[in-house]
Amino acid sequence: MLNKKDAWNIEVTDRESFEDFISLLLADFNKNKDNDEAWENNRLDLFLEAMSSYTADIDGYYQNMEPDQNADIPSWKVFADIMRGAVVYE
Length: 90
Description:
The protein has 3 helices and no strands.
């Protein structure tokens, strides 16, 4: 069950909320795939490249924005944050 209305605001805490997040992210992609401002990486190759780079850099994001979050401890939240970042990461 979706507990928020979009992929940018859903709180991902477990497998079920991650599943909801993926569905919302796909809906957002389908809505905005031709909008380069909304989806900088709107092709699979670009998205995966950005996802790889953002995975390497996410610790810096957490140090600045969520100092209690450890990027080295895998969680559904970290996976979702990496995918959110890959949408716009340059």
